[in-house]
Amino acid sequence: MPDTHEWLVTGMDCPSCAAKIKGAVGQLPGIETVEISVMSRKLRVTATAHATLPADIESRVKSLGYGIEAIAQAGGVPNPHTEADEHATQADAPWYRTGKGHLVLLTAALLSVAWGLALLLPASGNWPFIVACLAGLIPIALRAFAAIRAGQPFSIEALMTIAATGALFIGAAQEAALVVFLFAVGELLEGVAVSHARDGIRALSTLVPKTALREKNDMMEEVAAAELVPGDVVIVRPGDRIPADGKIISGTGGVDESPVTGESMPVTRGPGDPVFAGAINNETALRVQVTRAAADNTIARIIRLVEQAEDSRAPTQRFIDRFSRWYMPAIVVLSALVVAIPPLLFGQAWSVWVYRGLSLLLIGCPCALVISVPAAIASALYAGARHGLLMKGGAVIEATAAIKTVALDKTGTLTMGQPEVTDILCLDGSPAAEALVLAAAVEKASNHPLAQAIVRKAEGMVLPPVQDSRAIPGKGVSAVFDGQIVTVASPRHAMQDGALSSTAAAQATVLESEGKTVVVLYTSTALALIGLRDEPRQDAQETIRQLRSLGVTPIILTGDNQRTAEAIAGLLRTEYKAELLPEQKQQTIRELTARGPVMMVGDGINDAPALKQATVGVAIGSGTDVALETADAAILRNRITDIPALIRLARSTMGNIRQNVSIALGLKGIFLVTTIIGMTGLWLAIMADTGATVLVTLNALRLLRTNPAGLAQKA
Ligand SMILES: Nc1ncnc2c1ncn2[C@@H]1O[C@H](COP(=O)(O)OP(=O)(O)OP(=O)(O)O)[C@@H](O)[C@H]1O
Ligand SMILES: [Zn+2]
């Protein structure tokens, strides 16, 4: 039985650092898996019990120059509110109190002293610079050696150490000291930029209050929010944040759900309505019954998704990771050639070419390139999460950016998903109420929106007892009443069962051409027709317009009948396919995929297979209802203009990545050439590297502030 341990790693601000730790820990005996995340700073290791002690892992990470702290675990299940987790949600230490900050301050001070001495006492020579260089270089060199011992010969620390030592040997002490200082500054800036990105997720996790007022035997007690269990009743005072996902028992008032869904307008919530942990109760005191424990409330699931999303790598990122793996060794080989060939073959001066070779080594850091993708992806994920758009990682973002067709489910996606019974036509002349209660009794077991509408219509009436309810997916529901099978289903299915006469079918057609959905209540013959109307969403038309302007083709897929589908498709002027059974929806998606990547948008309740089949499956709904886990992406705001917003966010993320890769590769390319021809030297080489890393990270951070709904809507 393997052991799993979790740590918080500090001082790790770039993917190559993460890769180094992962490689070094992975080499220890008995290690099975190593997961590491720059954004959440978490290291998770599973190991064969006792082969490697947690302490061994800790000392290995420390030797590489990082801080490490265990995260307590309760019974192997990560406890959401342990103490170390509190640290994870704490702000990073101010820069001047980190190891990297100390190195910058130390090298800056020594360098200033050296320059001062050089000005005042020109005779003092090079030694103050040598001291400044070595003081900064020693910690870097120690990390380089630790990396080599851990099986990672090529690290940026190793390249730095060789370059700076070499520069000392050829008498360029002043430059060597400057290079060490600039390297330290670069590392620091990198850390500052990444900690900005971390603020995004921290903002999410600090939303849920730490304590709650629990009602117990008519008394109130303050308890930790993490201790609440489903069934507990809590009181939420006006102005307080709701401590758990739950259902309102009493009290009606405005609730601001923006922390969870990004929706800034407060919504009125009353008895029976669901509420989310983290939402703000604006008006009156609410009594709320807890429905989910802290670990799986909506916001905890969102945070988990965003954290795990880092592991789902975009194809672009996989390519860059592969590229950077041979980039560093290739640069080392190239510098060796630059040092050796001109003097040996063409009789050039050694001093010139050794200097150029050393400068070239400094270009070997792939940091800017490597960080460009995850920084952009992380920023986009957090920007999305803040606005109720969830995507499960880089692969999903990259696929979303390339979408050519968007298939939209009708019920609950293009319509409100809250149909209402408008007509009850009794075919045998008995009273409408009788048909209604029988239909409601059969539908009671179903969670289909049509079923719920019928049950709602019969509220307050006495329902006859029925047994053995079972759903016929995409068709209807049947149950046994009084020894007879009673079914509520689509006219088509009723027809196939031989229960619908042609006169009744004609009556159904009339209702359908009014845009209504008709279901038939029948035994061996039809008893009644029930007409239901589901209003299109107000933003449906705008969504279709925005999708078109993005160059994406919308298409409606529905299980409903042709005429109802035609009514809404005509209104929105889109293609449609109707009367699809769930597996036919899946088949249609497969066919659409031949034209290019397809996004499927649905409520995730009865179209899970189609969501799975699509290149990107998007679940839509409001908060707790959303089947987050079944889809690649989810929209929490119950607003479908968020679908084009999602595509715009993905596209601008990929655009950002392209810019970053161009900046990183462009600068490397330029300095590769200028270094070889001798135009630029050591310190400009390191500036180019640091500059590129910072530029790329800052560019990625721009995404953090985007509001996907407001992103430029390209014509
Ligand atoms: N519980 C039910 N009660 C009555 N009729 C049902 C039920 N479930 C399905 N049907 C019938 O089958 C048809 C197709 O159902 P399905 O669930 O596949 O699609 P839908 O969810 O209504 O629409 P969409 O595909 O647009 O989401 C419905 O229009 C209805 O006529
Ligand atoms: Zn780095």
From TrEMBL:
Uppermost EC category: translocase
CDD domains: HMA, P-type_ATPase_Pb_Zn_Cd2-like
Membrane topology: Multi-pass membrane protein
EC assignment: 7.2.2.12
Subcellular location: Cell membrane
Reaction equation(s) it catalyzes: Zn(2+)(in) + ATP + H2O = Zn(2+)(out) + ADP + phosphate + H(+)
Entry keyword set: ATP-binding, Cell membrane, Membrane, Metal-binding, Nucleotide-binding, Phosphoprotein, Translocase, Transmembrane, Transmembrane helix
PROSITE patterns on file: ATPASE_E1_E2, HMA_1, HMA_2
Domain HMA intervals: 3-69
Chain ranges passing through the membrane: 103-121, 127-146, 153-170, 176-194, 326-346, 358-383, 661-686
GO cellular component terms attached to this protein's record: plasma membrane
Keyword Cytoplasm (UniProt): no
GO molecular function: ATP binding; ATP hydrolysis activity; cadmium ion transmembrane transporter activity; metal ion binding; P-type zinc transporter activity
Keyword Nucleotide-binding found: yes
Entry similarity comment: Belongs to the cation transport ATPase (P-type) (TC 3.A.3) family. Type IB subfamily.
Protein name, as recorded: P-type Zn(2+) transporter
Species this protein is from: Acetobacter lovaniensis
Lineage summary: Bacteria, Pseudomonadati, Pseudomonadota, Alphaproteobacteria, Acetobacterales
